[in-house]
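[job 0412] stage=complex_fold ligand=heme C status=START
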Amino acid sequence: MSQPGNTHFTRKVSDVSDGKMGGTAEPSQTRQVARGAPLLIAALSFSLLTGASYGETSMERGEAMYLQHCAACHQPDGKGIPGFFPSLAGHPRVNSDHPEKIQEYLAAIIFGYHGGLIVNRQLYSGRMPPIGQLGRLNDGELLDLINYQRQSWGNSARAVTAAELAEARSKKR
Ligand code: HEC
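[job 0412] stage=complex_fold status=DONE, emitting structure tokens
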């Protein structure tokens, strides 16, 4: 069933690609479409120049940093690769609100971890790099990243506090 509205729309689009100004389409609409492309390009290059792509909210910044520092191993969807990189989605320690479990989890991110793990009945014997200790991320960035993981991909743990992060950092291993 073709609706009269659809026919009208198709006609306007083909008018634009023919390069006709006016014609059967309303002139104002045709000009708007033609002006859209340069504006979009200007907006994109502005965000690249200013680095605005890091995002406004804690979740947006956390996601950007997760993609940069963790996703190569744990994957963009947080599901990891079974047998190589544990899934952070549904990981019991990532989801725990228990202070001791939070300290263990923070220690893995700050100091790295190796020596074997069993997560969701799967064995891991790889090596997690000491991301939080390498000086690439300050505490605010690390908190954004950590809390992004705790509230993404179906995870729904409470946010970790700056005091908890400081406590984990102060522990020598
Ligand atoms: C180079 C690959 C790699 C990168 C990058 C990486 N990880 Fe890991 N991660 C691992 C491996 C491998 C393990 C499992 C360690 C083992 O098998 O003993 C792991 C384990 C973990 C665990 C589970 C620890 C536990 O106690 O169960 C968490 C949480 C974690 N990573 C978070 C992160 C976060 C957050 C980042 C980014 C800041 C990150 N990882 C970056 C490879 C990586």
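The helical segments are 4-17, 27-50, 58-69, 71-74, 92-95, 99-111, 139-150, 162-170.
[job 0412] exit 0
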